[in-house]
Structures are given as C-alpha cells and as structure tokens.
Specification:
The complex is a heterodimer of chains A (142) and B (313).
Chain A lengths: L5 H15 L18 H23 L5 H21 L7 H27 L13 E2 L2 E2 L2
Helix pairs in contact in A: 2-3
Chain B lengths: L1 H9 L15 H36 L1 H7 L5 H26 L3 H31 L38 H21 L21 E2 L2 E2 L3 H6 L14 H34 L8 H25 L3
Antiparallel strand pairs in B: 1-2
Helix pairs in contact in B: 2-3, 2-8, 2-9, 4-5, 4-9, 5-8, 8-9
Classes of the chains: A mainly alpha (142), B mainly alpha (313).
Chain lengths: 142, 313
C-alpha cells in the first residue's frame, strides 16, 4: 500500500496517458498492464486453427489404420498449443503461469498413462466376448 | 476501499478506481488474478482428465466398441461446432485486445459475437442430443437403437430380409442356457403349485425364490430383442458388446463440456454488461482477460473431444 515507489508511479502515469489516446494507439502495443496482441497475429492463429480442423477431418477420411489416432492427437496437440500460446497469451505471460499449466498437464499425462499401463497389463485376464461368435435367437453365428 | 481511495486522494496520490486496496499496483493485481485463474484452470484440466482417463482405458480395452459406435455420430455437425468454437475463441482473444486498448464499441461487438457463437454451439449440440434421444442412442439400458449406424459393417449380417447366421437352435450350450433362463420364470409358479421339489432320495431340493436375471454376460439376454422388439432387429445380437458404454462416455464428456460452455456464456454476458457500462480500459481489463482464459480452456477441451469422439479410425 505504498504507491510512492517509482515503478508504480511510472506505471500509473503511463496508464492515464494511454487512456487519453487509446483509440489513436490502436495497432501499436502499449506498455500498460499485460501484453497486447496485434490483430494480424490473431487472424493468423485463427486461420491456422481452421486449416488444422479441416486437416484433421481429412486425415480421418484416409485409411491410416492405427496411425489415425496418433495423427488426430498430433493435430489436436498443435491446435491446443496455438490456442494456449497466443489466444491465452502464455507466450508473453509471466513464465510461472506456463510452469503451472505445464505441470498440470504433466500430472494429467502421468495419471492417464499409469491407469492405461495398469489396465493393459491385465488386459489378457479380462473376460472377452468375441464379436464374431455371438449368440442369437436363431443359434450361434459360428 | 473508497475510504482508502479518499485518503490516498487527500494525500495527493492518484489511486486507480479499480485497484483493490490490498494491491500496490495494477500490475500486481493483474498478475495475482491471472495466476489465480491459471490455478483454477489446472483444476479444470484435472477434472476433465478423469474423464479422458476413462475414455483411454475403455478404448484401449475395447477398440471395437469405439470404431463401431462413433459411426452413429455426425462428424459434420461436430466439425461445424469445432469451427464455431474456434471462431468464438478468436473473437474473444480480439475482445481482450479491444479492452486493453479501450476500444469500447469494438469490445461490445466482439463479446456479442462470442456470446452468439456460444448459443450457436449449444444449438447444434441440442440438435445432436435430440437426434440421439430419438434414435435410442443413450447410456446403459437406454441404448436401444432401431438400426445400425450408416457405413457400419456387422459380420455375417444381411439386412433387411436376410437372416444370416441362422443355425440349429439350441446347438450350443450357451443358447440352451439362455433358453433355460428365459423359461425359468414361467415354470416357477408350477413348482410352487406342486409343492417342494424332491430328489431321488426324497430330500427337498432348495430352490432360490429369485428368478434368473434377464441379463447375461454380454449385457441383455440374447433373446431380449426378438422377444420384445421383433426379429427385424436381429442385428442387435451381432454388434460389439456394450456399445452403450460409448454413449455413456460421449454424454458425460460432451455434457460436462456443455455445462462449461454455459458457464462461460454467463461470464461473457456479465462482462458484456460491464463493458456496456464502460468499466474497462487500458488500466483495468482483468475480468475480460480472465473470462477469455476460461473460454479458451473450454475451446481446448473441445479440440481434443472432437477427434476422440467423432473421428475414430
């Protein structure tokens, strides 16, 4: 609660100044609170996301077998990175926010991969119901 | 706070209107708020990761269910919804910029577009849910579709007139067991009428009073569909087992995501009202930025949900 320090004063002075000609300053990043993204960059990111969405639908039409899952996840990961870095300002933010978010993603990955590893370890012991040998009212299919 | 502001003003210092008294500078207030929102977003990610975990485990163990059941979903509606959400994220990010630069009219316009996109997303979702409801594509025992999905291949089945797979009834022990379980409830009253059943030595054979459950290892008993729905949906006996689980996962994941969209729209409506009032400018745009972060996270979740649910194989 001591706004006497130089940084705070300078910041506020800057703030009031930029309020005066905010419309005129459009397009040039000002030095207020936070980081202002240029419209061109936002449009570019949006275009990239649309192209990647079309790409992921196109890839799903192709017959890539088991690779289709990895392809779809890779495209989704690129899209998510674009959204996080630019729309969510993570690239220009305080690095600690990125550390918090990445840490969370690492734990989510650990959580899912451990559960998956465990489940697949016991996969051979599960009661499997063969899909090509079904019981029907008219007898079995095989 | 007003008292503090008054004191500051009387002391000859300028105190920004929106700076809470426990922060030194607007920047400190902004950074603290942003860190708080990011921490909240991590809890959201972990909430959804539980559902993604259920998805991963079930898909890894039963890929055939996902390859079959996703054909019931309309990938074009899902794709359009993806584009709607991405566009709304774009307008939201632009709205944050507009609020930072104090462009009030642009901010109001962009927030309105974002809100409209939210309504568009929910409308398309409503169409999808309504179709699923009408076609009996729901969770658990409510999964009772009348026809297999388009482009699906069910081995050994020719629709509609072919009765492929007709074999000698009762040839397999399982079929005999199924017949026995079906006839058991009918014979139970007869047993009760003739008194307790005795074996060869004359001892009373204890019998359970509970009739056999009409549920077999693969879910509903095989003859359920022909018994209650007619032989024309014989294909239900041949699709992968437990397709209903896919719809359980589909509805819980998209449903929770839909709730987040609604919450995001409420927040956008709130900052829209405040921006009409003229609350935001270069010195104070925190609520716009934080609502934007939340909205982008909702977009992020959908970016993964769309290929995982609609674009399998």
């Amino acid at each position: 609660m001591t706004p006497e320090d130089g940084l705070g004063k300078a910041l506020m002075a800057n703030m009031h100044e930029s309020t005066g000609h905010a419309e005129g300053a459009a397009g040039t990043p000002h030095q207020g609170v936070g980081h202002v993204l240029p419209v061109k960059l936002l449009v570019a990111v949006f275009g990239g996301l649309v192209i990647l969405t079309i790409l992921t639908v196109a890839v799903s039409e192709m017959n890539l077998g088991p690779w289709s899952l990895y392809a779809a996840l890779a495209v989704a990961l690129v899209k998510a990175t674009l959204v996080a870095l630019y729309f969510m300002h993570l690239r220009y933010d305080k690095p600690f926010n990125a550390v918090v978010f990445l840490g969370c993603l690492i734990f989510a990955t650990l959580f899912i991969s451990f559960a998956l590893t465990d489940s697949l370890y016991y996969k051979s012991t599960k009661i499997s119901i063969p899909t090509d040998h079904m019981h029907t009212p008219f007898g079995d299919t095989k | 706070m007003s008292q503090t502001a008054h004191v500051e003003a009387s002391a000859g210092h300028e105190h920004p209107k929106n700076l809470a008294h426990h922060f030194d500078t607007p920047e400190q207030q902004f950074d603290a708020g942003k860190l708080g929102v990011w921490l909240f977003l991590t809890t959201e990610v972990l909430l959804f990761s539980g559902l993604f975990c259920a998805y991963s485990v079930y898909r890894a163990n039963h890929p055939e269910v996902f390859e079959y059941a996703h054909l019931y979903l309309n990938k074009w509606l899902g794709g359009i919804n993806t584009l709607v959400l991405i566009f709304s994220s774009f307008t939201m990010a632009w709205a944050v910029r507009a609020s930072q630069l104090g462009q009030r009219k642009l901010l109001i316009g962009l927030l309105s577009i974002t809100l409209l996109c939210g309504f568009g997303f929910l409308s398309i979702k409503y169409i999808e849910y309504k179709n699923k409801w009408e076609e009996g594509l729901l969770w658990g025992l409510r999964y009772q579709p009348d026809k297999p999905p388009e482009h699906s291949v069910i081995p050994g089945l020719v629709l509609p007139e072919g009765k492929a797979g007709e074999g000698a009834p009762g040839s397999a022990p399982a079929t005999a067991a199924a017949n026995a379980s079906a006839s058991a409830p009918a014979s139970a009253p007869a047993v009760a009428a003739t008194g307790p059943q005795r074996n060869a030595e004359g001892y009373v054979v204890e019998q359970s009073q509970i009739p056999p459950a009409p549920v077999g290892p693969k879910g509903i008993a095989p003859n359920y569909y022909t018994k209650y729905k007619g032989p024309e949906i014989e294909w239900r006996g041949r699709e992968p087992a437990n397709v209903n689980v896919f719809f359980g996962i589909y509805f819980i994941m998209t449903g929770l995501h839909g709730l987040h969209v609604i919450a995001g729209m409420v927040l956008i409506g709130w900052i829209l009202r405040r921006s009409v009032r003229g609350d935001f400018g270069p010195g104070y745009f925190n609520p716009v930025d934080f609502t934007g972060l939340y909205w982008h996270l909702v977009d992020l979740v959908w970016i993964f949900l769309f290929p995982l649910l609609y674009l399998i194989k």
